Amino acid sequence: MAEWLDPKYARVFTIGSTTSVSRRLLKTLAVSPPLPNPMQLNPLAIAGAEVRHAPALYPIDAADRSMRALTREIAWTQHHLNLFGRAVAAPRLSCWMGDPDTAYTYSRTRFVPQAWTPAVAELRDDLRERLGVRFNSVLANLYRDGQDSMGWHSDDEPELGPRPLIASLSFGAGRTFRLRSRATREAALSIELTHGSLLLMGGDTQSLYQHALPKRMRVTGARINLTFRTIGLPAARVDRVGAASAAMP
Ligand SMILES: O=C(O)CCC(=O)C(=O)O
Ligand SMILES: [Mn+2]
To answer: Which residue's alpha carbon is nearest to atom 4 within ligand 1?
Structure first.
């Protein structure tokens, strides 16, 4: 059995490792695999959720190179969110990128993916190597300074499936990332996402919790965040989740 499997999954996953056979099996069963932990990512204790964190996945010089390349290469765009019928400028720049078949809808807008840029493809491939997961898409966000932000939401769009695995890489200025319960609104996590860090969210994290990146008026530097995702599931799985989609103010 793969080393990183949590003991609680040992019962279910008795096959040798996360081979393509076990991945196909997981797809059929419509469950997401347990979060991979080949790098000894720190598990964060959040009831019912699966969140792991590597504060310095990349050393500073590599993270600096990524920050420079991502700033330059990505076609950063000012999107508008549809809030109560009004188009409101999102407080950040964004870019949806991925394989050609990964169109994505959020805040009632359909995004056709941009082609992978070299720096993003390199990070995608590095995550594949480390985690054994090939993400087919990524939402890139550029927070120009501490006034840019992301409001409370869950990454629960139907295209992502019911228990999505999301790998979030951060570069540039450190910013606070928060998680709160969807049911009670009680705070569950407040963590600084630093330059070169990785945060993995899986299992029921999206169905039980919301997350946000609040404004930080004292932060003057830019931050880039890449949330790698897997889009595109058989219709049967999508139907079961329903069509609810969170707005991202
Ligand atoms: O910037 C972050 O850390 C969070 C981004 C996020 O939640 C998203 O892209 O859905
Ligand atoms: Mn999100």
So the answer is: 213
